[in-house]
Amino acid sequence: MKLKIINYPVSQVLIDSPNYPQRLKQLSRPPNRLYYRGVWQETLFSKTLAIVGSRRATNYSERVLDLLLPSLIAEGVTIISGFMYGVDTLAHQKCLENGGRTIAVLGGGLNVLYPPENEKLYQEIIQNGLIISEYPPDQQPQLWTFIQRNRLVAALSTLGVLVVEAGEKSGSLVTAKLARELGKPVLAIPGPITSSVSQGTNELIRRGWAKPVLEASDILPLSSVSLFSEKSSNPHSPEGQILTWLAAEPLTLDELALKLNQPVAKVSQILILMALKNEITEENGQYFPKTTPIASKIIEK
Fold it and tell me: Under 8 Å CB-to-CB from 144, ≥6 apart: which residues?
């Protein structure tokens, strides 16, 4: 499907240009040129994480990305993915929702919208990152072009490739294999052993081919975590107030947002970061304090 409205011209970066991503030159067959839409900034490529996964992503993928991305984006990490259905689309969307920057690597030309449902996402990414492709703008995607695309996703990552959900024969496992061959870290989210879209990730972990990821600090040492810990130790900060209220009774997200007089989306991000630091836990929609040193200090006050 052709894009209905194209507000941005297609630009190019040649392999001999100083702006060409040097990491792509690790490949045995680096593209001679990259076509792109958006604003090309070298800082986009300096700290990157590739996120891949099943096209049949479940709600589990969404919850995982809600948990991990706020802290990674706070550290200036650019999220790279392949713009396809499922985990790819979620990774781009969740990154943008949290104010981050993302790079979409297409398996076809820049003028060919695939999947067609992602036209709005395409336009949003141009405003906050890049859409790139090694193929001429009008080239239709095919199976082989998607396979070729995967090597760019792996090569552009600095922090590695994170596999969120993947079936036993998922194309995401191809990207993971390419990352290993390039000497990049391979990371995987453990999933339920009963889930068909977690068989691939669990197998990567079982064979020792991927590091299991349970929190954002498994991917990147997070200075923002320590910053938020300092905030939590202040009883007058939102985090400190939340811990004080939860010490008295469990509360829901809506109740906490009402008490803080803040939007639900903002309070949700605060709670995600507090959960990452193991300060609170959630059960049946209610939040409870955990007995961490910081939480205990607030509760005592």
Answer: none
Residues 6+ apart with CB under 8 A from 263: 257
Domains by residue range for the chain, with CATH: 11-218 (3.40.50.450), 223-300 (1.10.10.10)
pLDDT for the residue numbered 4: 55
Q: What is the DSSP letter of 67?
A: H
Q: How far apart are CA 132 and CA 108, in angstroms?
A: 10
Residue carrying structure tokens 């453990």:
190
Please provide the DSSP assignment of 148-159 as one string.
HHHHHHHHH-SS
Closest by Cα among 160, 197, 195, 166 to 180: 160
Task: Give residue-wise pLDDT tens across range 217-247.
Answer: 899 876 544 344 444 456 677 888 899 899 8
How is residue 69 written in tokens? 């991305």
**pTM of this structure:** 0.74
Whole-number average pLDDT of the chain: 87
Q: Which helix (H) or strand (E) holds 175?
A: helix 172-181
Is residue 281 predicted with pLDDT exceeding 60?
yes
Q: How far is residue 292's CA from residue 277's CA, in Å, rounded to a whole number?
A: 9
CB neighbour class for 282 (10 Å; exposed up to 12, middle 13-18, buried from 19):
middle
pLDDT of 20 over the 80 cut: yes
Other CB atoms within a 10 A radius of the CB of residue 99 amount to 12
- Residue of 261, 238, 257, 243 lying closest to 301 (CA atoms): 243
Q: Are residues 163 and 52 in contact, defined by beta-carbon separation less than 8 angstroms?
A: yes
The SS3 assignment for 15 reads: coil
**Among 3-7, 150-154, 236-240, 274-278, whose mean pLDDT is lowest?**
3-7
| DSSP codes of every residue in 21-40 | -GGGGGSSS--SEEEEEE--
Euclidean distance between CA atoms 133 and 140, whole angstroms: 12
Which percentage of the chain shows pLDDT scores above 90? 63
Hey, is 44 helix, strand or coil?
helix
